Amino acid sequence: MKVLSAEHYLQEKQNKSSQTDDSHLDESVMAIISEVRQEGDKALKRMTEKFDGVKLDRITVSEEEFLQAESAVNQAFKTALKTARENIEAFHKEQKEQSWFINQPGGITLGQKVTPIERVGVYIPGGKASYPSSVLMNVIPAQLAGVNEIAITTPPDRDGKVSPYVLAAAREAGVDTVYKAGGAQAIAALAYGTETIQNVFKIVGPGNAYVARAKKWVFGDVDIDMIAGPSEICIIADATANPRFVAADLLSQAEHDEAARPLLVTTSQQMADTVRDEITQQTEQLERQAIIQQSLKQNGRIILAETLSEAFATANAIAPEHLQLMIQEPFVNLANITNAGAIFLGDYSPEPLGDYAAGPNHTLPTSGTAVFSSPLGVYDFVKRSSVIHYPKEALNQVSEDIIRLAEAEGLTAHGQSIKIRKDDDHASSDRQSQDS
């Protein structure tokens, strides 16, 4: 891992951002989306054979495959899955929103009606790993929001099967609709529908670069949660941190894929040196060494800060997906953090705790987007409609103001919409006078 000053790291980060060119990727993704829109299931099956190396007879996971998955996973895994589900449900129940209304003088009623999105698609990655935890993290908030129809898409393996762990998680979460489709083609199918896959109104879940770009291009026709980039962790460690813990936590993210970004910000040169040694030793004992080593070489950085204040400022500029505060008094210093997807406090709150068991969502903003976005939650699966009711008398009181504002904007039909009601009111009064 390179060792840099905070200033030099932020400059390097800026240079990389300015050099990013996704035009070639976008061309490929747009072509895939177009083919799926035109050919539906035929395009999906052709691309599954091309990209995943398997020829599918059917796209939908059958009940028999669910039963096979049920018998393939052991009871210990099922118990762990159940515990995780209960913790995720307990946390996300606190995010539920209610419709609300306020009554004002004159019979005015204003409010907000909260309605769940009707149909949602969840993308679960495949390839280098299996992600049953992502099933729970994406499905449970949608269920708590009241979404009626939830479908999962995930790439099959070379035998045409979906990971039994993913199917077990889907069954634990109560989802029976799982499609064997991955990549940009799966996103296109969810957005626009095929003969087999019904279109949805929102797509959530992480994926590779093709999935991320496809979500970008279908956004507007459907909603999306976020455009996820590579997984990243930033650890702020002072001289009191345990270097073995720091190294292990950095490696836990480096093993995701070669593009993962493990970062350490420390005020201690000794900590930096010891962590580097620990990383070398611990990597030799891990299964995914090749991926880890590439991640560390390409994106791993140890950033030296002169003070904790500079460390906090650096972390806020990075706006990481995962931020660990392995420092003295982490709760006191929490106020210094403004940009992070999830914040882990102390030596015994490692990032994998959030990935699997604690309860908060692990679908988090990446690539610096934590400066403006939030973790996936129940709030992502509802719509909010404003509700307005004015009786005649209340409208009359504000009618002249509305007309003036409309005329100032040159929108005379807006003004006429108010005037016609005033004129009708005057006509009604005249008729009542003539009748008397």
Descriptive report:
One of its GO terms (molecular function) is histidinol dehydrogenase activity. NAD(+) binds at residues 123, 185, 208. By secondary structure, this protein is an alpha/beta fold. It folds into three domains: 23-226, 3-Layer(aba) Sandwich (Rossmann fold); 230-372, Rossmann fold, CATH 3.40.50.1980; 391-435, Single alpha-helices involved in coiled-coils or other helix-helix interfaces (Up-down Bundle). The chain has 17 helices and 14 strands. Strands 1-11-10-9-12-13 form a six-stranded parallel sheet, with helices on both faces. The chain has a five-stranded parallel sheet with strand order 6-5-4-7-8, with helices on both faces. The longest helix is centred in the C-terminal third of the chain and has 24 residues, at 412-435.
- pLDDT < 50 runs, ≥5 residues: 430-436
Structural class: alpha/beta
CATH architecture of the largest domain: 3-Layer(aba) Sandwich
Query: Main β-sheet: number of strands, strand sense, barrel status?
Result: 6 strands, parallel
Which sequence of strands runs across the widest sheet? 1-11-10-9-12-13
CATH fold name of the largest domain = Rossmann fold
Question: Any idea what the radius of gyration is?
Answer: 27 Å
Separation of the first and last Cα atoms: 93 Å
Q: Output mean pLDDT.
A: 94
Helix content: 40-55%
What is the number of E strands?
14
Number of helices: 17
- Oligomeric status of the shown chains? single chain
